[in-house]
Amino acid sequence: MPFFSTADGTRLAYEDYGTGSPIVFVAGWSLSADMWEYQLPRFVDEGYRCVLLDRRGHARSERPSTGYDLDTLSADIAALLEHLDLREVTLVAHSFGGVESAHYLGAYGTERVSRAVFLAACLPSMRRSEANPDGLPQEAIDATMASLRADRTRWLYNGGQAYFATQLGNTVMPAMIEDTIRQCMNTAPMAAIWLQQVNLNAAHEDDLAKLDIPVLVLHGAADASAPVHLTGRRTAAVIPNCVYREYPRAGHGLYVTHADAVNADILNFIRTGGTAKG
Predict the structure, then answer these.
(1) 92, 117 Cβ separation under 8 angstroms
(2) Residues with catalytic roles
(3) Which Gene3D superfamilies is this protein grouped with (predicted)?
């Protein structure tokens, strides 16, 4: 597995498959490059170069004691793109990866990125504010963080079924739920806590409103982790050049339960230059 060094000297792991136009996959909170198992073969077979990052504190990357703020995390994405000299990139980002990617685009612009896909992203914001009056109140954020700190394993197991919206008939093998939890538990505990705190408090309405590239927003109507009325629908309303797809029976783990539809929508978006509305 190849590695590269970031500005603060942290060694991060990545995977690089295929040739052609590059797609950079940015994983969700506490997940690793392994989460993209249902996307990677399809996109490589379709002729794309697929680059997958293990963020700092996750999986095979180093676990520094600092750098879990959005400025550093977006700088890590920039360092990867520069290390491989990637251009005309399609960013595909899930959950907290969308928060990182939005911050990257706001800080570094779109010189290297030609389009973005926000998949169940926790954007534009989760917390209650003037811009998001229906968002999570501070007491709800505090309760979530207290529960995560008290017993991360229990917190993850309690949310396993809802993550894939199995109550709506989505068939997911128990082994898949176990593997998702295993990935999360392989993340440095302090990294998981710090990133969830960032995730629940970040706000990107301004950054998204300024995006000058095509964006595809894919979200599940049954998403318990990033409720669609707080995230996906608001993101689509904020971004000027946006294509929006909502899957009625999908949860946060739609990259598994709705992989065929997600992959097809992303491929269509890339092939049409990000302009397809139908």
Answers:
(1) yes
(2) 95, 223, 252
(3) alpha/beta hydrolase
